[in-house]
Write a structure and sequence with these properties.
The structure holds 2 protein chains of 2 kinds. Helices cover 42% and strands 17% of the residues of chain A. Chain A folds into 2 domains: 247 residues, 3-Layer(aba) Sandwich (Rossmann fold), CATH 3.40.50.970; 135 residues, Rossmann fold (3-Layer(aba) Sandwich), CATH 3.40.50.920. In chain A, helix 1 runs parallel beside helix 7, helix 3 packs parallel to helix 5 and helix 8 packs across helix 9. Chain A is of the alpha/beta class. Chain B has 2 domains: 176 residues, 3-Layer(aba) Sandwich (Pyruvate-ferredoxin Oxidoreductase, domain 3); 63 residues, Alpha-Beta Plaits (2-Layer Sandwich), CATH 3.30.70.20. Chain B is of the alpha/beta class. In chain B, 43% of the residues are buried. In chain B, a hairpin with a 5-residue loop joins strand 9 and strand 10. Classes of the chains: A alpha/beta, B alpha/beta. At the A-B interface, strand 8, helix 10, helix 13, helix 14 and helix 15 of A face helix 1 and strand 2 of B. Bound molecules: iron/sulfur cluster (2 copies). One iron/sulfur cluster binds next to helix 8 of chain B.
């Protein structure tokens, strides 16, 4: 296979990431908006275009159990899910990370009901943030394929041995086609060595190993949890090495963060995932109007790149943290992580303001960017900056009013009044 | 950046047309991105697709609210308030519509792609036809690259060889019918949207619950129809087979036991036509 540029959806790019990485085993269970990934892989395996074993499971929970176990036997294992599926399998994520099984899981972000939705919100993948998985969040279809390969390279490194989630946005990226370079097999083999588990399950019958012990001793538990943390921290260094080799092999640069026009920026927008593209174009538009703005895109969410974030934001006066998730009772999940990273910085920004938008795939545009900039400039250090500003369009508000009217719950409608009189 | 928004119904080829346009643009050296938008509904429900074409990296995503070009696959969508296909179309923006009579007036291009597709391909799937007409109107791609894109994308969705050939002929014909309008490349960003403030509301409002239960009849699913079943009562024997088989309970029996189709909700699946033992149901335009 030679290097080829093709129009691929994010989902197809994920499938190509698995195929290019020569995975041995694919565990699947369909869920919108991810199904295209496992369907594509199943087709390739079925037609003999890919030398791997494919199993379709009865749920995400069993799928993930099998994926982790397979990885321990020394099989390079790939799986994918989304939203409710990831949450349903959440228990197994902790197990896989505890087993230090370096699978790659592609999560296609979708809001978590209720109400049920198919479009993007990052509450699913961020619910897995404390599981021990490394997390790489993609902006483009090319990122998806790159991060799958980088994921195996970093996760399987003996100094790390951790599973990896590659995240992409449902619909906005999973179904969007862009020109993507499918890597050449020879370059892949230089970049990504064969996977071998150092102490494989079912390896040597004379010297069997067992994973997943149960302990009643806190010191045992403490020790291994802390080791998991140290492994995750170690992965940052390994990522940097891998990114260097990646650039040599494929010519594309990847850091744990990306800085865009941050150098002299007074206001920096923090963004993740595919909406970073929109933030980037908003930054360019505002720059044309003379505003000194920039963007910091966080690509690696776990381990959280605190030093890189602090360095990139240290000279800004205002930081607008834009995120597509909402933890009830907390606000944005990424906001406190950014703020904490900056607390120890010698030049702390005056204002770090939290913004929430794009929930369920609602739009982001220049209007929202302008509003965020205005709010940041008007904010004082003593205001309630952690209380997120919800970016909600007037036209969406009108459509909501119509939906509430249909549901009979709009204030003042007949059914609402009937049931709630007094 | 050129922003193209396509509106059609599931099954008409709206998504594939978007893929063809964007691939044709990339074959001419542009950066392009295409993405479809649809809900959980099935065939016949309104769908949209978006194509962005630029000389530089495309730094936009999701719904296109201020398109330079609207491509309308189904004239019945023009009057739909929910779809509102012309919403946000820029001044001097182009409309490419699948309807007769054919011709170009100002920036409106009409092409009867459905009739042409039925004649040349044998079915009303107009992805190749509408994509070719749009590429020509925009002046973004030469005919050979349009045809190459049609071939790649139709093979990708699994079309048989002979159908691909028929679609290539259709695309070539539609390409030649349309003048190159040469839409001006917009470098202005999409329109900005005013924001609303959201406050906490009482429980019955702020919980996602439905108090006017039984409101699904308000959703008229007949809007999803791409063809209309018509019963010939001079033949119909009132055997009730269609009444039993209609998966959407869109056929009821009147006082005389004759089947009546509820066109507000009939989705045009044509199961009644297939099941009618004496072929008393025919298929007509939606
Ligand atoms: S086409 Fe016939 S079977 Fe299908 S929904 Fe309409 S009436 Fe029912
Ligand atoms: S199946 Fe045909 S003949 Fe029987 S009731 Fe329906 S339309 Fe009439």
């Amino acid at each position: 296979m030679t290097s080829a540029k093709r129009m691929l959806t994010g989902n197809m790019a994920a499938a190509w990431g698995a195929r290019s990485s020569n995975v041995d085993y694919v565990c699947g269970y369909p869920i919108t908006p991810q199904s295209e990934i496992v369907e594509t892989l199943a087709g390739w395996v079925d037609r003999g275009e890919m030398r791997a074993k494919f199993t379709n499971f009865d749920s995400e929970h069993s799928m993930l159990a099998a994926a982790g176990a397979a990885s321990l036997t020394g099989a390079r294992t790939f799986t994918a899910t989304a939203s409710q599926g990831l949450i349903y399998g959440l228990e197994m994520l902790y197990a896989i990370a505890g087993w230090r099984a370096p699978i790659v899981l592609v999560n296609v972000s979708r809001g978590v009901g209720m109400p049920m939705i198919l479009q993007v919100e990052h509450g699913d993948v961020l619910a897995a943030r404390d599981s021990g998985f490394i997390q790489l969040h993609a902006e483009t279809c090319q990122d998806v394929i790159d991060f799958v390969m980088l994921g195996y390279r970093v996760g399987e490194d003996r100094r790390v041995m951790l599973p990896v989630i590659v995240n992409m946005d449902g619909f906005v990226l999973s179904f969007a086609r862009e020109r993507v370079e499918i890597p050449e097999a020879r370059a892949v083999s230089r970049f990504l060595p064969e996977y071998e588990h150092p102490t494989p399950l079912l390896g040597d019958p004379e010297a069997p190993v067992a994973f997943s012990p149960t302990t009643t001793d806190g010191f045992v538990y403490s020790y291994f949890k802390h080791q998991l943390h140290l492994a995750s921290i170690e992965s940052k260094k390994v990522f940097a090495e891998a990114a260097k080799d990646f650039s040599a092999a494929f010519g594309r640069e990847h850091g744990v963060v990306e800085e865009f026009m941050t150098g002299d920026a007074e206001t920096v927008f923090v963004a993740t995932n595919s909406y970073s593209s929109i933030v980037r174009s908003g930054v360019m538009a505002l720059r044309r109007e003379g505003e000194r703005v920039g963007m910091l895109r966080v690509k690696m969410l776990r381990p959280f790149p605190s030093e890189e974030v602090a360095r990139a934001l240290g000279s800004a006066r205002h930081v607008a943290v834009y995120e597509q998730n909402l933890a009830p009772g907390r606000g944005g999940i990424i906001y406190p992580e950014v703020t904490e990273a900056l607390y120890h910085s010698p030049h702390r920004p005056e204002v770090i303001q939290s913004f929430i938008g794009g929930l369920g795939g609602t739009q982001l545009g220049l209007g929202e960017m302008r509003l965020m900039l205005k709010k940041c400039k008007a904010s004082r250090a003593d205001s309630r900056l952690h209380e997120p500003v919800l970016l909600f369009r007037k036209e969406d508000s009108d459509r909501l009013a119509e939906a509430l009217r249909l549901a009979g719950t709009a204030p003042g409608t007949a059914s609402a009044v009937r049931k709630h009189a007094g | 950046m050129l922003r193209v928004r396509l509106h059609g119904r599931g099954g008409q080829g709206t998504k594939t047309a978007g893929s063809i346009i964007s691939l044709a643009a990339t074959l001419e050296g542009y950066h392009a991105q295409d993405s479809p938008m649809y809900g959980p509904e099935r065939r016949g429900a309104p769908v949209a697709s978006f194509v962005r074409i630029s000389r530089d990296q495309v730094n936009e995503r999701g719904y296109i609210t201020s398109p330079d070009v609207v491509v309308l696959f189904d004239r019945s969508l023009a009057s739909s308030k929910a779809v509102d296909p012309l919403a946000g179309l820029r001044k001097a923006g182009v409309l490419v519509a699948n309807e007769g009579p054919e011709g170009t007036e100002g920036s409106v291009v009409r092409i009867d792609a459905s009739s042409r597709a039925r004649r040349l391909v044998g079915r009303d799937n107009v992805s190749a036809a509408m994509a070719a007409a749009t590429c020509r109107a925009l002046g973004i791609s030469r005919v050979e690259n349009v045809l190459s894109a049609v071939e790649t994308e139709l093979r990708e969705v699994g079309l048989a060889d002979q159908d691909v050939q028929k679609n290539l002929a259709l695309a070539e014909e539609c390409y030649s019918l349309v003048p190159a309008l040469g839409v001006r490349d917009q470098d202005s960003p999409e329109a900005e949207h005013a924001l609303a403030e959201v406050r906490y509301a009482p429980h019955y409002v702020s919980t996602s619950l439905i108090m006017s239960t039984g409101n699904s009849p308000q959703k008229k699913t007949g809007g999803w129809r791409t063809s209309r079943p018509v019963i010939d009562y001079s033949k119909c024997t009132n055997c009730m087979v269609c009444f039993v088989y209609c998966p959407d309970s869109a056929i009821h029996l009147d006082a005389d036991g004759a089947p009546r189709i509820d066109y507000d909700n009939c989705k045009g699946c044509m199961i009644c036509l297939t099941e009618c033992p004496i072929r008393a149901v025919s298929e007509e335009a939606p």
